[in-house]
Design goal:
The complex is a heterotrimer of chains A (about 270), B (about 425) and C (about 300). By secondary structure, chain A is an all-alpha fold. Chain A has one domain: MetI-like (MetI-like fold, Orthogonal Bundle), CATH 1.10.3720.10. Chain A contains 14 helices and no strands. Chain A has helices at about 1-30, 35-40, 50-60, 65-95, 100-110, 115-130, 135-145, 145-155, 160-170, 175-185, 190-205, 205-210, 220-230, 235-260. In chain A, helix 1 (about 1-30) packs antiparallel against helix 14 (about 235-260) and helix 3 (about 50-60) packs across helix 14 (about 235-260). Chain A is globular. Chain B has 2 domains: about 30-140 and about 300-375, D-Maltodextrin-Binding Protein, domain 2 (3-Layer(aba) Sandwich); about 145-300 and about 385-420, 3-Layer(aba) Sandwich (D-Maltodextrin-Binding Protein, domain 2), CATH 3.40.190.10. Chain B has about 425 residues and is α/β, with parallel strands linked by helices. The termini of chain B are far apart. Chain B is globular. Chain C is about 75% helix and about 0% strand. Chain C has a single domain (about 75-300), classed as MetI-like (MetI-like fold, Orthogonal Bundle). Classes of the chains: A mainly alpha (about 270), B alpha/beta (about 425), C mainly alpha (about 300). The interface between A and C is large, with 99 and 100 residues. Chain A: It holds the Pfam family BPD_transp_1.
Chain lengths: ~270, ~425, ~300
């Protein structure tokens, strides 16, 4: 019994240590957001009184609300579209797998392996010819279907109980019906994890919006943050505040969805 | 089904977009890409206001883009031959100007015959904006190098700012070592593995890293070797401390652990926020390398200029805009100086009253006229097309030398690396 | 005893067949996704490959055959950057994935308190923009920074370490940065994967007297194998293409000892005199290396 207690205590110790390492730089960042630039560079760890001032500078010098809204809009559209398209494909690859589809999956995986910087120019030309520059569709399309998400859903489908499929077929559900009525609810945990990751990636996407969105009004948060460091003098308090705020949407989504991918799904088909 | 609808929807949107654009043709809109709201963007806005009085039909539309992002967008659009989205005017780092003009011929508008009086700008700056004898840009901000020092610290050691004016590096080292001994404070800080300070010293000698034919000149570059020797001595005598990044660099003089700094005049923007140090700072010119022929007390670091894109629908209008504002309006420079500290390389501005105003942070020194004077004396060098490659190879060589490699072998290596990159 | 659990597991994975009609229907599921990837990845990749056969700078390009690929062999910077990314790969990926797996295992324990807090804390670094975190990291690892102070107060060393100054300490810093940022990211996939495992299997194993270690190696890892394969491929790929960390934390220094291949590609395209053809050739070599590595990983990890 004592041994078990010790084991448990060491578990908590380990978790606390890891959480401290994870949170310390972020704590520093939020403290920095409340200080003046000079104090930030001095390395202060004491919260200051400059938060309001930093926020005023941020909202008056930049198109802050606009950038937040743009980022949110693009990230939300991308997430919804890519969850649907990618999970459909991932499900198809696993549940109906045969040699042809396994082969195709392997080919699709190759798409992960080319640095974006290299396909950027050809992709830009392509989108220019399609007339999709400066559009939400232009922003979202390259990330709607990613081999990564397809692969994630394919791998997760491997644990999807096939009895469910057989039973549903006997009940007269169509194949697409099984996907929507059975697979999506049961695989909530995978969907939740995928939603968080996709949203975050779209939110932080940098290079593609940079070149496809040429209008000032289409600026996203990562570009706004990049602009904050571009001058001869950088206001580090404002910069830290902007970065701190830009984490929040992903964080909120994570908090909202984490029960789904971490707490187990009650009433699943087990 | 839905997909079709979306495509249709976007097509409609696009058509709508195009038609509104054609209706708006009555007025000319000149779009500008530049960075830094407190500096370039502010200056551009003021220029737009001035031009608005002269030519109300022209709209100036400014988009904020960080320099690195601007270069990425520029290179992508030009190499994809999709120039529709490029603006009419861009701000260009002087260090990258020749590279871009050479890499993308016909992408930039030749301003030689635009009527802009280039003689009114500091010579070294005009030289940087010229490629093959053609003027490609209107010089803008002043990167003339200053030696900014804390006179309260100097005083403690028994020196004044005059003791550091018009001197050689030998004298600087001698006095700097004395200041360090008496006050415990170094006079300079530099980022390890970055060659900015060396570049400043290099330009003060009127030399660069390429010979007349544009071939790399590193292995047998005597001024460079002398500079490395000086740099090493500064480090050994602890007159110069090395830190690891830009933020720490700013912090060294803001927090007062270092009693001075040498950089382009724009560094003033990072000096003045520290209110406790008001009145303690002065600026002066740089030490010169006495052993190098033609060496001066003046140099340059950073700076940028306005270019007109050749794909612009109305390049003449864009050029005229620049001519009437940055190219010839003393008024503009007088407006932007006090609130942004954006010092021009437009020499006539130096005579104006605003430029003669004493600056309280610098103990009422007339720093702006001083800087304009420095600018007029900066030696001309041609940064060349392969400037960034040179910068990185020199930085690498310096790092290797500082960790113990022999100077000649490190420079030989740098020479062959650079030759490879230019091959 | 314990074997009965394994049997149950196998039975659960086996036992269904796919008929012709369903295989046909399956294609409709995968085609939209596949089509998008073909048009927005493979088509540009082919264009990029053609570009890699073009020599010259900026827009003055002309056909050069394999000249760019030959150039690679003489390029010391390319070799150095390739060496660096392999250092990151070998050091970082196993550490990070093991750590993520352990954390997921601990956090999957339903009786653990503050689970939600720990999960969030470990996840949140990957949502952070590197721009600010690099400033904080460099300041923490400065000569007189937080990390050196702590290490010296704990008497773990006598002299402060110049982390960013030495080639190996700088590389280590990149590895630490990568692990800090991406462990939580990978942990999420493991956590999600664990939810799809029937808790009854664990219960049965416990009754059979399997130890915690046995449960990890005999149930958790085999059940998570598909997801472990996924994260391994993703991390391998991500590390070989690492860009943000090296650009923001060390900018490739000191003396290029942390320069990554992607950063080199970026320099070739946007900082140096642009050599788009050569940059594409560099990328293609990375592409082939990653493809080969992933192929082996698939071979080992993807049997049904």
């Amino acid at each position: 019994m004592n041994k078990q207690k010790l084991f448990r205590a060491s578990k908590y110790g380990f978790l606390i240590l890891i959480s401290f390492c994870s949170l310390f730089p972020l704590f520093w960042m939020f403290v920095a957001a409340t200080n003046t630039s000079v104090d930030v560079l001095g390395g202060t760890l004491i919260p200051g009184f400059n938060l309001k001032e930093n926020f005023n500078v941020l909202t008056s010098n930049t198109n802050f609300y606009r950038a937040m809204w743009n980022s949110f809009k693009y990230a939300a559209v991308t997430t919804l579209a890519s969850l649907l398209v990618s999970s459909l494909a991932g499900y198809g690859f696993e549940i109906y797998h045969d040699r042809g589809k396994d082969m195709l999956m392997k080919i699709l995986l190759l798409s992960l392996m080319v640095p974006f910087a290299v396909i950027m120019v050809p992709l830009y030309m392509f989108f220019g010819n399609l007339g999709l520059l400066n559009t939400t569709a232009g922003f979202a399309l390259p990330t709607v279907s990613t081999a990564f998400l397809i692969f994630l859903f394919r791998q997760s489908s491997r644990n999807f109980p096939h009895e469910v499929i057989e039973a549903s077929r006997l009940d007269g559900l169509t194949e697409i019906g099984i996907f929507f009525r059975m697979f999506i609810p049961i695989m909530r945990s995978t969907y939740a994890a995928a939603a968080v990751i996709t949203f975050m990636n779209a939110w932080n996407n940098y290079l593609w919006p940079l070149i496809i969105m040429q209008k000032d009004s289409a600026k996203t948060m990562p570009l706004l943050i990049s602009n904050l460091t571009a001058g001869y003098t950088t206001d580090y308090g404002v910069l830290m505040l902007a970065v701190g705020i830009s984490i929040l949407p992903t964080l909120v989504l994570f908090l909202a969805l984490q029960k789904n991918f971490a707490e187990g799904v009650t009433g699943s088909a087990k | 089904m839905n997909k079709k609808l979306t495509v249709l929807f976007f097509m409609v949107l696009m058509v709508a977009g195009f038609t509104t654009m054609t209706f708006a043709q009555e007025e000319t809109t000149i779009t500008v890409w530049c960075w830094d709201p407190n500096f370039n963007i502010y200056a551009m806005e003021e220029a737009a206001a001035i031009y608005g009085d002269l030519n109300p039909d022209v709209n100036i539309d400014i988009k904020e883009v960080a320099w690195e992002d601007l270069q990425t967008q520029l290179s992508t659009s030009l190499s994809a031959n999709q120039t529709d989205n490029l603006p009419d005017i861009i701000l260009m780092q002087d260090t990258a100007l020749a590279k871009n003009v050479n890499s993308f011929p016909n992408a930039f508008y030749d301003l030689s015959d635009s009527g802009i009086e280039f003689d009114n700008f500091a010579n070294f700056k005009v030289e940087l904006t010229k490629v093959d004898g053609k003027n490609y840009a209107v010089p803008f901000d002043n990167g003339a190098a200053i030696n900014a020092m804390r006179v309260d610290v100097l005083e403690e050691a028994g020196y004044t700012i005059e003791d550091f004016t018009d001197i050689s590096w030998e004298e600087f080292i001698e006095k700097g070592a004395d200041v360090k001994e008496k006050t415990g404070k170094p006079l300079l800080s530099a980022i390890a593995g970055q060659s900015d300070l060396l570049m400043i010293m290099m330009q003060s000698t009127g030399n660069w890293f390429f010979d007349q034919n544009g071939e790399p000149n590193i292995a047998d570059n005597e001024p460079l070797k002398e500079i490395i020797r000086v740099y090493q001595e500064l480090l050994e005598k602890e007159i110069l401390v090395q830190i690891n990044d830009w933020n720490q660099y700013i912090s060294t003089f803001q927090s007062g652990t270092v009693a001075g700094t040498m950089n382009g005049a724009w560094i003033i923007g990072s000096i003045v926020p520290v209110e406790e140090q008001a009145g303690d700072w002065r600026i002066t010119n740089l030490p010169r390398l006495a052993n190098i022929e033609g060496s001066s007390n003046y140099s340059n670091q950073g700076g940028s200029s306005w270019m007109v894109m050749a794909n612009s629908e109305k390049p003449e209008v864009a050029a005229d805009f620049l001519d009437k504002t940055f190219g010839g309006s003393k008024e503009l420079y007088e407006i932007i100086l006090p609130s942004s500290g954006a010092i021009a390389t437009y020499l006539p501005a130096g005579d104006s009253e605003v430029y003669n105003m004493p600056h309280p942070f610098f103990g009422d020194q007339k720093i702006y006229t001083e800087i304009i004077d420095y600018a007029a004396n900066v030696p001309e060098v041609d940064y060349g097309i392969y400037n960034y490659e040179a910068r990185d190879t020199i930085s690498t060589a310096i790092t290797q030398i500082m960790s113990g490699q022999d100077i000649q072998s490190a420079l030989d290596e740098a020479q062959s690396t650079l030759e490879f990159q230019m091959w | 005893m314990f074997n009965s659990t394994i049997e149950k597991l196998k039975a659960f994975k086996r036992g269904y067949s796919v008929n012709r009609k369903h295989k046909m229907i399956g294609w409709f599921f995968v085609i939209p996704g596949a089509l998008l990837i073909f048009s927005f990845y493979f088509y540009p990749i082919i264009r990029a490959f053609l570009l890699s056969m073009q020599g010259g700078v900026g827009n003055n390009l002309r056909f050069a055959g394999a000249a760019n690929y030959q150039r690679l062999f003489a390029d010391t910077l390319f070799k150095k950057s390739l060496f660096n990314v392999f250092v990151y790969l070998i050091l970082q990926v196993p550490i990070m994935l093991t750590l993520a797996l352990i954390l997921a295992g601990i956090l999957n324990d339903k009786t653990l308190k503050f689970r939600s807090f720990f999960r969030t804390a470990i996840f949140v670094p990957c949502a952070t923009s590197l721009v600010s975190y690099a400033i904080i990291f460099r300041s923490m690892f400065a000569l007189d920074g937080f990390v050196n102070t702590v290490l010296m107060n704990l008497n773990l060393m006598a002299e402060p370490i110049n982390w960013l100054g030495g080639p190996w300490t700088a590389r280590l810093l990149i590895v630490i940065g990568l692990t800090w940022r991406w462990t939580g990211y990978n942990m999420i996939f493991y956590l999600a994967g664990l939810q799809n495992i029937d808790p009854a299997i664990y219960e049965a194993a416990k009754i059979d007297g399997a130890s915690a270690f046995d449960r990890l190696t005999k149930i958790t890892i085999p059940m998570l194998k598909p997801i472990i394969l996924l994260t391994t491929i993703m991390s391998t790929n991500g590390t070989l293409q690492i860009f943000d960390e090296t650009k923001n934390l060390t900018n490739g220094g000191p003396a290029n000892s942390t320069l990554s291949v992607s950063q080199y590609i970026y320099r070739l395209s946007f900082e140096y005199v642009p050599r788009f053809g050569y940059a594409a050739a560099v990328a293609f070599v990375v592409f082939i290396i990653v493809a080969i590595l992933s192929f082996f990983q698939m071979k080992v990890g993807d049997e049904r």
